[in-house]
Amino acid sequence: MQHAVKLSLLSLLASAGAEETVLGAYIYHRHGDRTPKAISPALLTTLGYEQVHASGQYWRDRYLSGPQKISGVSEDVVKLSQIAVTASVNDVLQNSAMGFTQGLYPPVGQEVQTLANGNNVQAPLNGYQLIPVNTISSGASPEAATWLQGDSDCSNAKISSNSYFDSKEYQDLSASTKDFYASLNPVVNATLPATQVNFKNAYTVYDLINVATIHNQTIPSSDLLTNSTLLQLHTLANAHEWGLAYNASSPMRAVSGMQLAGEILDYMNSTITSGLKGSTSNKIGVQFGAYATFLSFFGLADLPKASTDFTGIVDYASSMAFELFTTADVSTSNGFPKSADDISVRFLFHNGTASNTSTPSVYPLFGGSATSLSWKDFASSMSKFAIRTNEEWCTACGNSTGTCAAYAPSSNNANSNEEGKGGSHMSAAIGGVIGAFVTLAVVMAALLAVMLIGGVRFASKKTLAGVRNGSAVGEEVKTKA
Description:
The protein is an alpha/beta fold. 39% of the residues lie in helices and 10% in strands. The protein starts with 8 loop residues before the first helix and ends in a 16-residue tail after the last helix. Pfam families: His_Phos_2.
């Protein structure tokens, strides 16, 4: 993913002036290089470890020790109250997050502690700093699924993504690329059967071959993998995954981006709330996730208007950051402005590992042209699609079982309007029971009258058994939500 449209970060910072103060940041990060998804389980490679560690070093230079150092943040020794690191439940993502934190807060040297008995204890691993990586539930294990929403718990998101396979765009690409994918069978047939080498599995095929070109010194039928072929594989994978991750007319397809937006808002709001109270907590939020969430968020935030490259799969170790900053005088207020009205937000993105020689660029959000937004405008625009609570997620996803059962519409809600009008009303459940007994009493009275007038008698089971061969057995019909 190469961005053709970007703004020079250096020129932007120069125009911002020396009075600018960074107040906090939220970073969303893709994992580093890994083994292919088609060969489970996918594992972080040494190259991937190095990529995320290097990225951590860059963001350290920016936010902990450089000119854009976050006001009030601890530079060398981590304060856990100032940082929150999360990742989905997945080995690749969890390990990537830990590698990143090692670059962000490296070991602090051979710290020695003297005990009461005089013994000296030296910190292991040269003073390695322990930073917890908390798990975050996104309703799926994004790096375990071979296609977007494939393991999602969000019913409406899954339905929306599946509808892509019925679209004309998908059908046309599937038909027109049939021969192209068939020609690649000799390259991947040791892992994928011929029936799976097609556009429906565009990302799986691309991922398998992409990993091979990075790590394998020999590849079967490598002569087929020309530069043109590799470019076409990548382009088709981009189209396939974008189609599954975002659709303007079916926004629930981007549920992972909606959840991320809610998490960003919540953390940045905690940074502002703490700062206005004079606290230096909640300074840096870091979350590791899969490329799918990048794509979904890009669509929701209207970033393709800044560059069409925002419709492509981001590279390993890519990162985007949301910075809180102010140009107000903070010299007399503990490094924080006196009002949230003095706080602005900017969005930065870097495709692949960020470094001091390849820095993130600033892009305008929400289809506009401004490279910074007031906190109020940013929060308002994000809130239009952000999911921030379990109830919002359950309602948007159309889920009503498990933890979502607490938010499912009940029969009482149907009568809420009537109950609100005053008077004495019984619940639907009680009314139903009383109605059943009344009906039963009427039927029994009528039956008794027939017996007395017409001389009808009940026959015993033995008598009935003699005149019929069997009886129908009623079956309970069960439905699964």
